[in-house]
Amino acid sequence: MNHRSIRKKTIITLVAIFTFLSLFAATEVADSTVVAKYQDNEITMGNVNKRLSQIPPMYKAKYDTAEGKKELLDIICTEEIFYLEALDQKIMEQDDFFERIADQVKNTYFSEYRKDLLKDAISFTDEEKRAYFKENHDQYKDRTFEEAEKMIEAKLKPEKENAIIEKKREELFVKYNVIINYDILPQINTLAPDSNEVIMNEKIITSSNTLIDRNVGDLVEHLDILSKRVQISLRTDDGKKQYIDRLAKSDVFYLDALEKGYDKNPMLKATIEQIERNMALRTVYNKLVVESIDTSDKKLKEYYNENIKEFSSLAHRKIQTFGFETKKTATKMRKTVKKLIKKKKEEEIKTLIIDNSVYAKGDGILDHIYDNGIIPGMGKDQVYCDMVWDTDPKDLSKVFQNSKGIYVFFRILEDVVAIAKPFEEEKDRIKKTFMRTLSKEKFESVKQELETKYALVTYPDKMDVRLTAEEYFNKAEAAQKRRRFNDAIFYYDEVMKYHKNNKDDYKAMFMKGFLFAEELKDTEKAIALFEEFLTLYPEGDLSESAQYMLSSLKNKEDMIESIDFEDK
Predict the structure, then answer these.
(1) Which residues does 489 contact at the CB level (< 8 Å), separation at least 6?
(2) Radius of gyration, CA atoms only, the chain
């Protein structure tokens, strides 16, 4: 049977695998199922599903699989034991805890207040819209007023919203007698907090409500809990003004929101509780993981020396390559080139390349070849790359065959060695890399300690839903249509695990091998799977197709052009 017939038979057989399938409602794990325990608490499948529902759609797909839900369970468990540790260490009772979340809390109240203030408040008269259309006619010259009306409303809406908010801010400033002393701002030195001692008691914001009052000392005292972005903005007078304006505005809206009873809003209360919880988790993580890592110069230098390659320029080589259709020609030309190099006949070498070499372009010169398995202009070729780096810069390389089947040899024109960047210049990057590496290790260590301390036990097997073979095949097919091939492979693995009947597992194993070969381009895994497949199932509808694909993979022949999984 020729290759075309085998390809056709493969397609027909694969389509047949799926044509008999129909959709079934999968049995789900009950929400009441306990999937983890710690101290006197339980985590149920309902908790996992609720958390899954809160994940933004763009990230949800990652966790909306059996394995994804187990990963999500691990995240939930980790948060719970770290939160218990935060409570145990009384993190939320620290003096500055609520000050560090004050901005987030006030912004949450402001967002709710703003939403209520603007609700049904935005409308535009026909006169306003036509006036805007006339003033900005250049923007809409290709449209009539009626065609541009919706665009005009979208443009006017933010302006009107800002006007309403600004008007309310002015009313609240009057209500709370707020006065901002802008003149003191240029005198505040945020880069050297101690230098502000003389003006510490000078008022920045005065109000009839003491909760709004701010002096220089209040600003300086809280500098270290502000974000880096805000700290940098406070280095300029304009940045200070904008920050103080935001602070005063946030305060008056927050106090008015409290007066209006916003703190009794259940959804708002839940959001604030989550903000507090997140800060507690961040604080205890920093204390147990980040702050426990020694970042002294001694440790950083040790890490720098141990990982010197990471902080060095990349070594690369420049070569002149010679390529020929046959080994005999290449061997003969190598002897000629060797003599010409010895006699320093560069022009004659160029002529030889132009007249004889497959790679005549640019005199056969290839630059910036790194030790990464890639040859510039030719693509991935591990053998060629290894040869470049294994050849002594003083020698002409041996003749060998590259990935394109051309017999080549080369000489090294330039050998640029890696140079380590000075420690002081790279110190910040060294510290970030060091922290990133060690914090992962430290986190795992702390996590294990807390799991033991709080007697965490998980039951991931209870999350498994054993489906029928048909259901797994349907899920795999749907995953393939979305090009989520690793998810499809997971479902084929489930078939092979739970349906060992020489029928369903047989089909699943072939499809798994096919996906590794055709879609994931993982030749090594595909070959191993097809070899195992043919060992387990030497005879069958798919055996001939598997043998063809195995031969194609081993000989680097063309793969099957396409597969149509739609029902015929």
Answers:
(1) 476, 512, 515, 516
(2) 35
Q: Which of 283, 289, 296, 211 is nearest to 247 (CA)?
A: 211
Q: How far apart are CA 486 and CA 479, in angstroms?
A: 8
The C-alpha angle 79, 80, 85, rounded to 5 degrees, equals: 95
Q: Which of 467, 451, 494 is nearest to 36 (CA)?
A: 451
Tens of pLDDT along 243-259? Answer: 999 999 999 999 999 99
Has residue 156 got a pLDDT over 90?
no
CA neighbours within 13 Å on the CB side: how many for 97? 19
What residues contact 250, with CB distance under 8 A and at least 6 apart? 103, 106, 107, 110
Q: 243, 220, 221: which is closest to 230 by C-alpha?
A: 243
CA atoms within 13 A on the CB side of 82: 24
Check if the beta carbon of residue 508 is closer than 8 Å to that of residue 496. yes
β-strand partners of 409: 322
Give the mean model confidence (pLDDT) for residues 189-208.
94
List, in sequence order, the alpha helices (H) in 20-118. Answer: 45-53, 57-63, 66-88, 97-100, 102-118
Evaluate whether 318 touches 468 at the Cβ level (below 8 Å).
no
* One-character DSSP codes across 508-537: HHHHHHHHHHHTS--HHHHHHHHHHHHHH-
C-alpha distances (whole Å) from 18 to each of 121, 205, 478, 488 are: 56, 72, 11, 14
Residue in the structure block whose two tokens are 């535009």: 124
Q: Name the amino acid, one letter, at 289.
A: V
**Is residue 82 pLDDT above 50, yes or no?**
yes
| Banded model confidence at residue 59, pLDDT cuts 50, 70, 90 | confident
Q: Per-residue pLDDT averaged across 159-180, rounded?
A: 94
Which residue carries 């009839």 as its tokens? 208
3-state secondary structure of 240: helix
Phi/psi for 188 (5° steps) reads -85, 125
pLDDT, tens digit, for every residue of 318-343? 999 999 999 999 999 999 999 999 99
The pLDDT value given to residue 556? 53
Question: Average per-residue pLDDT in the chain?
Answer: 89
Confidence at residue 134, expressed as pLDDT on a 0 to 100 scale? 87
Angstrom distances, CA of residue 64 to CA of 57, 253, 494, 564: 10, 40, 16, 26
Cβ burial of 55 (10 Å; 0-12, 13-18, 19+) is middle
Instruction: Give the span between the Cα atoms of 212 and 101, in whole angstroms.
Output: 16
pTM here is 0.67
What's the pLDDT score for residue 225?
A: 85
Find all residues with CB under 8 Å of 42, minimum gap 6, and list them. 34, 36
- Residue carrying structure tokens 């620290």: 94
